[in-house]
Known about the structure:
- It is built from seven helices and 18 strands.
- With 339 residues, it is α/β, with parallel strands linked by helices.
- The chain has one domain (69-331): Metallo-beta-lactamase, Chain A, CATH 3.60.15.
- The strands form four sheets. It has a seven-stranded mixed β-sheet with strand order 10-9-8-5-4-3-18, covered by helices on one side. A seven-stranded mixed β-sheet has the order 11-12-13-14-15-16-17, with helices on one face.
- Helix 3 links the parallel strand 9 (154-158) and strand 10.
- It is globular.
- The relative contact order is 0.17.
- Residues 335-339 have low confidence and may be disordered.
Amino acid sequence: MLIPPTVQSVSWRQRATDHFDVARQRFFNPWKDTEKTVVDLLRWWWTANPRPWPGRVDNVSHPPPDRAGRGQVAVTFVGHASVLARLGDTTLLTDPHFSTHAGAFGRLGAPRVRPPGIPPEALPPISVVFVSHDHYDHLDVPSLQWLDTHREPLFVTCLGVRDRLRREGLRRVVELDWWETLAVHDVTVTVTPAQHWSKRGAFDEFTTLWGGCFVRQRDGASLYFAGDSGYAPCFAEVRERLGAPDVALLPIGAYEPRWIMQDNHMNPDEAVRAHLDLGASASVAIHHAFFRLGDEGFDEPIRDLEVARRVHGVAAEAFRVLDVGESALLGRPHRHPRH
């Protein structure tokens, strides 16, 4: 559904949705109940078995990406869920996070162990910033405020998040429901379902929506960003509704222990299954090696992904791990027919 700007003046509570409980004023996952209780969290904290992480990892310098041709996407792994993607004349930045911690005020919460792959001042002009949901490791207010001041992008997010971003001073914000589409420059941006949850404060659990996005260049390449998600039917549905993406950005970290993480975070094996469900030409691993959010060790997601690729017969080139700051030119280059 293509959403004209006038729809943004209508409260999302007045827009029909099959994943919002009007009586409770809460969003939910249609496939399963993923809500966790305080008892669950206390059990995790009591029984946690965190494997080793380094205190700091320095980045290696990488060359900037080549310009993407028709049918290609230039992707740079900035870190965690932050990816810089170029499709034609449009530059997209997902879940930007440049603060020292994934927590309130950019100073509390889990500390980052690696600097961003691109410092904010080195970013090119940004057309669109996509914010997948309100968790602190994905919605970092200082980073978004810096981008609003210095790059003036359009911020696209999920239902309910726009009010928060506007309260923080962001000027150009559009929020969409799952499967709603917005035309921006030479691309369309469609918000897609994810199996996750939202919570920013003590009493706002499930009160805003979460999701990914599917970006399609007119007559060109397509990019799918999963956001944060457990393994669910949404990946197959994305392919059914929108087609197989040329490039998919899929999370592989924060998955241990499985008894509490599996509903909301994929492990590497499930990420490979999502890659196959999507039919992506190429996938890139995200959401790992930055913030310690689960019990798995620093290098475990990459090692487990290697095992999962072998099990499912997926080549390393088809599901890539980029170093922080590393770029890749992915997709299928368009070739003009001979006359």
